[in-house]
Write a structure and sequence with these properties.
The protein is of the alpha+beta class. It is built from 7 helices and 8 strands. It starts with a helix and ends in a 16-residue tail after the last helix.
Length: about 210
Amino acid sequence: MEFLRKLFGPSKKEIWQELSRRMGGQFVDGGWLGKDAVVVSHKEWTIVLDNYVVSTGKTTHTYTRIRAPYINKDGFRFTIYRRNFFADVGKFFGMEDVEIGEDEQFDFDFIIKGNDHYKLWKFFANPRIRYLFNEQPRIKVTVKSATPQSPFGSFGKNVDELQFIVHGIIKDIDQLHKLFDLFAEMLDHLCHINSAYEDDPTLKNYYS
C-alpha cells in the first residue's frame, strides 16, 4: 500500500478526510463498497460532496458531485458551464446563451442559461462568484429539483438544489475547497437577490 501511495499519491479518501478537517465538516466513510462523502454546514444549509457511478453497457463512468438544497423562493433557475466545441454547436442550433455584460471574458468563457434574465444579471454581477467559477478548469452548475436519493431527508416541492457534476474523481484539495467556497457564496447571494430563504430546507419547507 505504501508503494502505491508513493506511486499515485494520497488516495481520494485521505484527501477528502483532510478537506473535511480543514473545513470543519464531517467525513462519511462509505467503507470498501460504499460511497464516501464530505458534509459541510454553511449557516443553515448543508453542502455535500460525493461520487456516483453510471454504467452504460460494458462502460462505467464515475462522477464527482456537490449538492446543496435550499428553499427556492421565486423559482429562479439557471445552468452554467464552460464553453467548448459542443457548446458552440448547441448555440448554433438555437440553444440560448445569456450574456451578463459585466465581464466580456466571462461571457466568452461560459455558457449561461436561465429562466430570468434580470436575476441572471444580478446573480453573476457578483465578482467573487465569477472569480470562483474561473478558478475551475471543468465545471457545470445547475439549479434543479432537490435529489431525493440524498442524506438530506425529505423535501417540500419548493426545495431545489445547487448541483455541480463533473466526470472523474477530483483529488485536488485546493480545487475542492474553492468549490465549497463557490457554493457558500452562491447560497448567500441567492438570498441577497431574494431568490432563497436562509432556512434549513429539511425543517422549514412550508414556504409557498
